[in-house]
Specification:
Two copies of one chain form a homodimer.
Chain A (H helix, E strand, L loop, with lengths): L2 H9 L6 H12 L5 H14 L3 H12 L12 E2 L5 E2 L2 E5 L7 H11 L4 E5 L9 H5 L11 H11 L1 E5 L6 H11 L7 H15 L3 E8 L8 H17 L3 E8 L7 E2 L1 H12 L5 H17 L6 H13 L2 H12 L4 H5 L9 E6 L4 E6 L1 H11 L15 E4 L6 E2 L4 E7 L2 H14 E4 L9 E5 L2
Parallel strand pairs in A: 3-6, 4-5, 6-7
Antiparallel strand pairs in A: 1-2, 7-15, 8-11, 9-13, 10-12, 10-14, 11-13
């Protein structure tokens, strides 16, 4: 078999066999197929598409390109003898998406083991690893053994993806990023699911974001992605649900690493923005049902709500921070988290209803402040960010605070101010608030 | 402008602007765009296609990526004061295609200056540079100054392409070769024409081969390529004609470098195979008219025929060999050309009409003997090859010589014999001979 023949077959619209896909993925991972051949192959896959069978084979080939974690010995039983599956959750990424910070300890506090590897931010979207690293000392580079041991010990782990997990996806994703081959549903499905399958959880909830601050801009694309993810998970014998959620405006109020950690802490302690809190509880209820912990949606929501209100989730978060080497006093007293030297509230330039808050623009404003990265590997400033004080539909009065900029540089502060101001649009007529979720996809 | 945006625009079916195409070509030539981005771009161009305008801009950008030869001071005038344009000819490549070896001196002997750069063989197709290098001492690496000086001096030059000519095409072609992006009509058109435009001739005859031994397998593709080449040449103010000629069986009888030089010498001296001689005279007549030397086709054919019969073309060939440092005694006495140690005639296995002779298989048999290359840069053995003794339609008798293998290795000889035998198919019923030409395309 030759790489050239596999490229030509897909170029001509052919369906690649399992062997051809495995050949290409293995050879590329082993540096025996050069980047330029993989780039031509990816563009052919992008433009000619992939069947469900090809997508599955690509996913499996990438999942098996490195370690496949076996978490079966972490599956627990309830008092009634029911199995509690190990759960994982994936978000396709957005602005202000700090869900995992609250969700993981909340679920673990409900007795369901959570084993989650997570990523860094790129472009306008933030990454959970970056947010966690706002907490002094928090380790995001756990190895496979420590990963498993911590789930065993405290029922929850939240760390960066190890290099041994789906290395083929890591290499192909980096190449897609620089060859304009990112926005392909089958390639996105296989990238997400190869990592999730390798990470070993039995039950996976997928949070597919749609809107101006998400990769999927249309409902059609979001549905195609959600269905693709769910089908693939089921074919791999996982329990899977996908939720399609809104990402037209930031989720919650804080955008920026330490600011988001602080908002997550507020939420774990019983406060936090309403939309963020409701979003977390909705996802939590799905996970609790999927894992086998609770059968009915009402009971699942009640359990999640009680666990949040009782402080059990907050206590589990403290355990998590401590287990991964983080400074617990910094989360107990969030003023010890990194803080920007300039904190400037910006007033609303007019009265009216908030018509839209362009999420991607807020994300890019934070990148401009130094809180995100334009290219992989760039260092980031955890202290900076933007806190929006309103949501779409709110009626506001001219001169009241519209948002607050946290910056360490006067010029960057001004640029961010202009950008975030321009990202807010107003209307004289009442505006409907945006929904949190659009659809629940189970097949 | 960013390479990524240009890739994405073509990926999404957009029409690239002249500036975008020039940006990509210049940056890639300067090593400021990496191979993997160019590979993704080429696959997007291949699959999404290019408009005539894009093809022209790509051609011009590649032509202008290096030296643009100005041959205007070589344009001569006839006694009647008419201009004689400098001519060039390009064949899309085939098996046994030694046309340039006879055509160039023939045209020059008719008084029309011939300035031709030519290439090496790859895969089943031979290359004129390799054939010329069968002649001891013949230099194929003339610089631009020597190239022009020789046309001035003896009216003809036949050498390899200089590195300074269309370097963008050289780099992109090498990448297409390893990324399955060769067989795209707009990319082939721009590759051929960028070199031809940079080489400076005013009148260009394009010999587009069609058949099992050519890159174009269908008449539809050959026509599309021929029309594309002619349109582009005219847009660049060149006089252009394309001929679509047969390449289902080898042209002439000899396939292999020194063997083809010998057949060319036979033809220049008044002998040679009928099909090859007729092919050369037909192309010559086109060139004589295109250059302004003769207005009518009949007169052009008569002039070409007379110049071949009189020995003037042969004399010009000797001048050419001498001017480029070749050993004239070796062409005067072709037994001094490289000769294989084993020369083995193979008998026809049955009686019947020759139904087909798979040209690509003959070409690959010669590669197997060491007379061609599978990868760029491989050294080749000029002495080996195959001489077929019959053409499609011939009635042959079992036991008479069907072809002769020239080899330097017993095992390779046997492999070539089996391959060439299998490439000959027979019929009990009379078979129509193949035509030499199918179409003449002028717009």
């Amino acid at each position: 078999m030759q790489a050239l023949d596999v490229i030509a077959k897909k170029r001509d619209g052919g369906e690649l066999s399992k062997e051809e896909i495995e050949f290409f993925v293995q050879r590329y991972t082993d540096d025996r197929i050069p980047d330029y051949q993989a780039a031509a192959w990816l563009m052919a896959l992008f433009l000619e598409g992939m069947t469900d069978r090809e997508t599955r084979d690509l996913t499996m080939a990438m999942a098996h390109s490195g370690d496949m974690l076996d978490l079966s010995d972490l599956v627990r039983s309830t008092e009634s003898g029911r199995k509690l599956l190990v759960v994982d959750k994936h978000s396709t990424g957005g602005v202000g998406d700090k869900v995992s910070l609250v969700l993981a300890p909340l679920i673990a506090a409900c007795g369901v083991p959570v084993a989650k590897m997570t990523g860094r931010g790129l472009g306008f979207t933030g990454g959970t690893v970056d947010k966690l690293e706002s907490i002094p000392g928090y380790r995001t580079d756990l190895g496979v053994d420590a990963f498993k041991a911590q789930v065993e010990q405290i029922g929850v782990v939240l760390t960066g993806q190890t290099a041994d997990l789906a290395p083929a996806d890591q290499k192909l994703y980096a190449l897609r990023d620089v060859t304009a081959t990112v926005e392909s549903i089958p390639l996105i499905v296989s990238s997400i699911m190869s990592k999730k399958l390798a990470a070993g959880a039995d039950a996976i909830v997928l949070d597919v974001k749609i809107g101006k601050g998400a990769f999927m801009k249309t409902m059609e694309d979001a549905e195609a992605l959600a269905h693709g993810l769910v089908r693939l998970g089921k074919q791999a014998d996982r329990k899977v649900v996908a939720l399609i959620s809104d990402m037209n405006q930031p989720l919650g109020r804080a955008v920026g690493n330490a600011l988001e950690v602080r908002e997550a802490i507020d939420t774990l302690r019983g406060g936090g923005p309403q939309d963020f809190r409701d979003h977390v509880l909705t996802v939590a209820a799905e996970i609790l049902r999927l894992s086998g912990r609770v059968a009915e949606r009402d009971a699942a929501l009640t359990l999640a709500l009680d666990t949040l209100s009782s402080g059990a989730a907050w206590q589990k978060f403290r355990d998590l921070v401590e287990a991964q080497g983080g400074d617990v006093s910094a989360v107990d007293n969030p003023d010890e988290l990194p803080q920007a030297s300039m904190v400037k509230p910006i007033e609303a330039p007019r009265s009216g209803y908030v018509r839209s808050i362009e999420a991607a623009e807020i994300g890019l404003a934070v990148v401009g402040l130094g809180g995100g990265r334009e290219e992989k590997g760039q260092p980031i400033d955890h202290s900076v960010g933007v806190v929006v004080h309103h949501k779409v539909g709110d009626l506001i009065q001219k001169g009241t605070p519209l948002f607050t900029i946290h910056a360490n540089d006067e010029k960057k502060l001004e640029e961010a101010r202009d950008r975030v101001l321009a990202a807010h649009r107003f209307s004289d007529q009442p505006v409907q608030p945006l929904p949190l979720f659009y659809q629940r996809i189970t097949e």
